[in-house]
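DATA SHEET
Item: assembly model
Revision: 1
Owner: S.N.
Input lines:
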Amino acid sequence: MTTATVSRWDRFRESFFWYSFRRDKVAIISSLVLLLMVLAAIFAPLLAPANPYDLAQINIMNSELPPLGLDGADPSFPLGTDAQGRDLLSTILYGTRVSLMIGFGAVVLQSVLGILFGLLAGYLGGKVDAVLMRIADVQLSFSTLMVAIIVGAVFKASFGNLMFGEIAIYMLIFIIGVAEWPQIARTVRASVLAEKKKEYVDAAKVMGFGTRRIMFRHILPNTLSPIFVIGTVQIANAIISEAALSFLGLGMPETQPSLGSLIKSGFDYIQSGSWWITLIPGMVLVVLVLVINLLGDWLRDVMNPRLYKG
Amino acid sequence: MALLEVKNLDVRFAVRGGDLTALRGISFNLDKGERLGLVGESGAGKSVAAFSILNLVAQPGYIAGGQILFKGKDLAAMSERELRKIRGNQIAMIFQDPMMTLNPVLTIGTQMVEAILAHRKISKKEARDIALDRLQKVQIPSPEKRLDQYPHELSGGMRQRVIIAIALLLEPELIVADEPTTALDVTIQAEIMDLLLNLCEQENVALMLITHDLGVVSQVTRRMLVMYSGRIIEQGPTRDIINNAQHPYTRGLISALPQMGSPGARLFQIPGSMPSLKNVPAGCPFHPRCEFATEQCRGAMPEYVHSGNVDVACFEVAHRIEQETRMQEAES
């Protein structure tokens, strides 16, 4: 506070958030691992030795080669190959990309829906609240997987396999996003109910601000911290949901595999000794979900209003 | 014409088992640049009165009758859109707790600029200049720095200064201050009160000061209202009421103040407590606590009578005045 203007970066470095992050080894390691995986996924086209989407690069003669260090390994395929002869390392990099895209996409969609409906229900109350929350209740009483299986099967039947492959990623984002919005809507609604009784909301009304402005500009920023926590955990959940759907054959097609469909594609060969096709993507999936969940736990602790008011 | 003219205002709360009357036939005037005090115990309806002036009674409350004429226009009958143009712009409000009234996640500058832009079509830069000017007016140290700070970085006294600065942003004609100093330190209370008083005098802003501090009222206001259980029971020039209160309740309030002259003496206490809105006694609501209560008080609500410059709603005062006039007539 020596200068008149304090930059955002200085503010951030002085914050409790940064302080508790530096002191928490789990948080540091998890975020480093996550950062590494996200960067690897984003730059997959540059990092991967081969392009698994390019059928011309695939040679069926290379199928089921083991990873380095095992008998019969080929040094140009460090993690071995899958049953179609694709380089497993490249496929995993591209697969992580797909999984992360679906995870983030679904959470963005469910946050938009959840925040909008949660704010409306909490702030307006009355009939709006009753209707929106009953819709949420109905939505929550269907299992995500069940809805996804039905919608996925209908899509697949009506568009055919080829077309389905192109729209699969959007369909998965849509299904997982729509199925999970009530989680966020309920949390937002609960915080809005608490926030709207505070005096700054009265003060905003007294200033002559409109309802929309009070909702989005004054109340919403005050309800963001629980949304961050839930959003983080929901990314992990969305990735798992996607993997489960792909494993059931209703997610990403094998031509553009996600981690889930890679695990599935290797599952048929696990008995014949090619365990790496399933195990390595499986481990990547577990690590990815684990670090996101660990970060979510840490966020929950940091953003707990009873520990820290800011 | 008075700036604000409240006529027979009734405010009720719709709750299960029927309506509760929070304000009953409130009437008063406030002239341009005048300062009016509104006193009463907790639960007397002071804050409801303040909010209803802006037609902002919180659900399930509603204005059941009467008029709130601001410059001749009835706020009680206005649309939400029209009301928004008046709120913050021509009538500003200051709340009790400076810790709670500022939005914790927005900087002071953002909040001030936003308030200006909601009512004026000017650039952000100009709005920021206005904000800075108001912060200078409330004598905040290093005002430029404050614009970029968050509320939690300021002390309570500074925050209340910021809130006063926000109230002054759009040059309102009336400021409603709901216990503006209650949450502050005694030393800072005096500073903030002086500041508010000076600014109102300089800018010729009318002030409606709601408080339970009779000391503040006597220093700041020219006229005052005393409320009890949703009714105005006494109103008139502050000096007359403080020096020579008529209503037994007001007299009780004043004698309950600690006196410098008699240290160690027991403080006077009005027996009992304010009735809850659910069971307001019939007749004069103060009668169960009043030493002069008669059958008449239990049966009917007293009308206002003139006693000098003061209007009082009390049978006892009415009788006394009657007797006095009779004696004067007998003498002459």
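QC remark: Chain A touches chain B through 22 residues (CB under 8 Å).
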